[in-house]
Amino acid sequence: MAFSSTPRARGLSAAAVVAVAALAMTGCSAGGTTGGTTGGAITIGTTDKITTLDPAGSYDNGSFAVQNQVFPFLMNTPYGSPDVQPDIATKAEFTAPTEYTVTLKKGLKFANGNDLTSSDVKFSFDRQLKIADDNGPSSLLYNLDSTEAKNPTTVVFRLKAADDQIFPQILTSPAGPIVDEESFSATAITPDNDIVKAKAFAGQYVLTSYDFNNLLSYKANKDYQGLLGAAKTDVVNVKYYSDSSNLKLDVQEGNIDVAFRSLSATDIDDLRGNKKVKVVDGPGGEIRYIVFNFDTQPYGAKTPEADPAKALAVRAAVADVVDRAEIADQVYKGTYTPLYSYVPDGLTGATESLKGLYGDGSGKPDVAKAKASLAAAGVTTPITLNLQYNTDHYGPGSSDEYALIKDQLDASGLFTVNLQSTEYVQYVKDRTADVYPAYQLGWFPDYSDADNYLTPFFLTENFIKNHYSDPEVNDLILKQAVTVDPTARTAVIKEIQDKVAAQLPTVPLLQGAQVAVTGTNVTGTQTTLDASFKFRYAALAKG
Description:
By secondary structure, the protein is an alpha+beta fold. It has two domains: 44-276 and 520-542, D-Maltodextrin-Binding Protein, domain 2, CATH 3.40.190; 283-514, Roll (Dipeptide-binding Protein, domain 3). Helices cover 27% and strands 21% of the residues. The chain contains 16 helices and 19 strands. Strands 1, 8, 9, 10, 11, 12, 13, 14, 15, 16 and 17 form an eleven-stranded mixed β-sheet that branches. Helix 14 (471-481) runs antiparallel to helix 15. Pfam families: SBP_bac_5.
């Protein structure tokens, strides 16, 4: 029985760029120097959104962007590397096949002066599992049985299954921030303003002002003792835009230093010709896909005409008809590419499981095939499909993307699509309340391993919460996570994708890169995008 103090080597050296920084902009802060750091204040702009600062209540890029700056982690990834290393810990290792032991650095404190000890670590993970919020990341902790604070600097995680190859990476994910037990509720989501007022931070930065989804201000935390070291920039100002065209305008006028998530593909193309800015392209693990709610989709389990075979035929018809290449070319100008499976290209174990099953077998649509399959299942056409999407979280291209998907489905004669859009803060509540029969989601990976595209989606207790459950798939996902031999593990990962592709709880559409736009005097962005799957404010400097 093998166990190691280091996680399994990743199959992709940063092909998964988690957009963990919902970079935001403000027109104030134009240079100047600040104490103890290089360069002046950085101004960042985004159209992304925060749902909550509490790590137990959010599992989205906009929220993790802030959490990643202000909360400490036991494990993290240093700049320029995708490899997991101890952060506020001195060491982390498997001390038994089902025990992962972390030793904290001594003298750790939160910005409010409270000691940061193993008791806070235990509290942080216990509350994740206790609260288990529908929009939280607790599903990532499926293998965590219990957490023990052995002494003030020693934490022991007891796992349900031995030889977990993923757990060290999960400690770097949205499930991993350590919070102050004296400032957070043990049983409920703590309001944002209470967190800010309590100064319950111990990351590279603290929040000095907080206007929800409008304007944030960060200041470097001089007491941070973690892996990432001192922040390059003392002050970072972040403002959130509702319209990407305004974000582009401020980029052009030099009002912001960095724009990240999300400008349209057309805007990015236009900015490439602007000598006053740099367009930085990085490898990306982002995927875009359609989710089907197995209870409320056409012929879903809780509809009057419930029929599992017909419901599958509807999902298969969507997969047969949608033209991914047309979406990638027309809407995204090649910044996204077609995706035919659940694990994106570049990660170990990635397949193209959907390509041979749906459409013409080579990636193109096949309406005749969809029509025949629906008829064989006894489905009357056209099928009314209520399809929901969002623009403020997944970018301005979403409107054109879903308008084109509607056109493709409607033009087949097999569907009548009712297309609606909802603001993201409401969207995340509605989707887990069974409001949407079919809807858009995107995924920004937490760590660059195939597991992160399988576990949150297809375990019985999953983040998607679309009522998909398959015991065989569930067991295979658990199996791959504890399979030490890389070849054997890859085979299991491929098997999972094949089985899920035949069931279509989601229909993958696109895989995309990450793009940032910076002023010419900003340094650090290229390294961060290319070599780390976390885009952090502290990697940037202005001078």
